[in-house]
Amino acid sequence: MAGCSNLPSLFNSIQMKIEQYQIDQHNDSLFSRHNNQYIFLQEQLGEQGIHAKDIVKQLEAFQVAIPSWALGTGGTRFGRFSGVGEPRSLEEKIEDVGLLHALNRSSGSISLHIPWDIPGETQPIIDLATSLDLKFDAVNSNTFQDQKDQELSYKYGSLSHVDAQVRKQAVEHNIEVIKHGVNLGSKALSIWLSDGSCFPGQSNFVKAFQNTLESLQEIYAALPDDWKVYVEYKAYEPNFYSTVIQDWGSSLLFCQKLGPKADVLVDLGHHLPNANIEQIVATLMMEGRLAGFHFNDSKYGDDDLTVGAIRPYQLFLIFVELIEGMKRANRASDTYAWMIDASHNVKDPLEDLLQSVEAILIAQAQALLVDRKKLEQARNENDVVLAQQILQNAFRTDVRPLVREAMRLSGGSLDPIALYRHLGVRNELLNERGKLTVATGL
Ligand code: LRH
Ligand code: MN
């Protein structure tokens, strides 16, 4: 949206912050156009018996956790093209998430990865996050890399390793991560294991599974009563023949053997080509074992691209199952973990994350438009055409005025990326942090 070029850039040199008056000024210049679009859609939906305000309320309540490891420029094995003004510390990462949350009021928590983001003194970190209205979501352990001061290597695995000493080291790391999370007020440990093999014959699948289960049981026993453990699966990479926790089935098996505090984390990029992820989601919700998501998008492998950039219809279909499942389980949306897990090779990380959060809210809003009663009726009459019509009518509705209204009512921007660019945020970060700063993470 054009027409906000007269806003002054008023950043203080110490800590990067977007002031409420800057957002309000920006919204004032955009409001009339937005409101016309919003009222038009509100009337359109009203004719279908849908109350726009109810959907806006649900969008306002929906908070997405931002990964601490995706605030810098990522890279691939073929290279990394560094960005500028990247966060140099956990404090600056929290500041960056604070910028996102100020702009869209839907990025209200940060998910840390240990040891990439070990909090030094906890209280100042908590105070900074609180000052930016942020919480700490799940904490992620890391036994897929060797740290320089590490005694035993994870080259051939961690929780599944044939050597009990390596498994012990990995269990202790996860328990350490829980401690960091407890100090920060987090309520969940998120585990992704790269454990597996690259060649037939290399691994005893059953022993690897049993070793992993034993190790996870020790970690499970260390969880505080009100904590959860998320078990993330992945079909392949960095192992290219077998992965111990390779799919939703193996993750669910582990969770069922561990106990009620363990649930399955679905990373959208972790499936074999053309997997029906919305059906996996429906099944996990039916079993009450869906932890939540690592949202991203991909065309081929674990590409970690912007959410909704490649397959927005799949994301919509996933939210259709999520909303159905939450209704069936009578569970509120904040009882699930909504997290982004992306890596930015060619986009400004903050712009990429703003696009991802918007794509998630758009998919949720579209899915909330689906006339469930009519859809079930069409299904019961095997009226395949009508069923598709009902879904695609919702998917083809431009719900962006609802998403913008939710951001505006929550004190956010009507056009976060336009304001981000107008205020020259990246340039301010460059001035504050310098050109060649590199953020820890992927
Ligand atoms: C593995 C993964 C996992 C993280 C890592 C950063 O591919 O999705 O969630 O720990 O990315
Ligand atoms: Mn992930």
Considering the protein shown, what is the CATH homologous superfamily? Answer: Divalent-metal-dependent TIM barrel enzymes
User: What's the CATH C level?
Assistant: Alpha Beta
Average residue-wise pLDDT:
95
Radius of gyration: 22 Å
Number of domains: 1
Shape: globular
Compressed to H and E, one letter per element, the order equals HHEHEHEEHEEHEEHEHEHEHHHHHH
Total number of helices: 15
Strand order of the largest sheet: 4-5-7-9-10-11
Structural class of the secondary structure composition?
Answer: alpha/beta
Report how far apart the termini are.
32 Å
| CATH fold-level label | TIM Barrel
* Major sheet size, sense and barrel closure: 6 strands, parallel
Q: Report low-confidence residues grouped into runs of 5 or more.
A: 1-12
What are the distinct ligands in this entry? 6-deoxy-beta-L-fructofuranose, manganese (II) ion
DSSP helix fraction = 40-55%
Organism: Dyadobacter soli
Protein name: L-rhamnose isomerase / sugar isomerase
Keywords: Isomerase, Manganese, Metal-binding
GO molecular function: isomerase activity; metal ion binding
